[in-house]
């Protein structure tokens, strides 16, 4: 491509871009005003740097305005130098932006493009945010399910030991009440967890998270041979401790600790409890087999290792294991 043809191409592009010189852009910037400023700058440059090949420039501009044939004669050295300066000026002018656009990305101008179809417009719409975005994700993405199904339970004002020594196990089994629906994935877990303000529980109130089908009472058939690790937690750390122990439970971390291959009786995690006491919170991790000493030791080891450092009990007398049948309120099965 010759220098003349290159310059002609620049003029054509400039003419097409400024087809409507009186129409301002979206930001109040007029390409025509910029072009006038460029022409004034060119005239000043021409006056200060004579001689330049003015007749060739004038003929190119005249041909562009009136759509006449362009000259084909080769450029002289002076013309080539002058046109290079003009091209540099045009390139610099093209980068002018309004003050409102300072610091913004440059605008890409297009013309003669077909309109987007309805399908294309919907595909490029702004994404949903907040609750709408979460609902969209849960509808389109299948949330992995937990290995076990779970359920929250609420228990109000449980006494340390039964006052009525003739009370039956059915009386105690009726105290915990199911709280919400079954939990099969992290979606349902947080829908329940985020709506249970454990910080507002009263003295001796309890919240339990247990395997579906297992009641949070010692005498339940799945619990009767088991026991629990009890942790005495200060009230300022109790909510965070509860959150982490819940995640260890539903995430099968605790279950993996007690699973041992035994010929007669396989151990399981039954559930966890949050109980408000006078000056602290008692959090319990229930397992099915109190005689599984290896599983019990491994369970404690895993809990202490997985908890955040600030939550780990500092003294050994802040945690202990106890079989359910050792409690004074335990009712022997007939």
TrEMBL record:
Q: Kindly list the GO molecular function terms attached to this UniProt entry.
A: RNA 7-methylguanosine cap binding; translation initiation factor activity
- Positions in coiled-coil regions: none
Q: Name one Pfam family in it.
A: IF4E
Could you list this entry's UniProt keywords, alphabetically sorted: Initiation factor, Protein biosynthesis, RNA-binding, Translation regulation
- What InterPro entries is this protein classified in? TIF_eIF4e-like, TIF_eIF_4E
Any one cellular-component term (Gene Ontology): eukaryotic translation initiation factor 4F complex
Quick one: a GO biological-process term for this protein?
A: regulation of translation
Which family is this sequence assigned to?
Belongs to the eukaryotic initiation factor 4E family.
Tell me the PANTHER family matching this sequence: EUKARYOTIC TRANSLATION INITIATION FACTOR 4E RELATED (PTHR11960), EUKARYOTIC TRANSLATION INITIATION FACTOR 4E TYPE 3 (PTHR11960:SF66)
What is the name attached to this protein's record?
Eukaryotic translation initiation factor 4E type 3-A
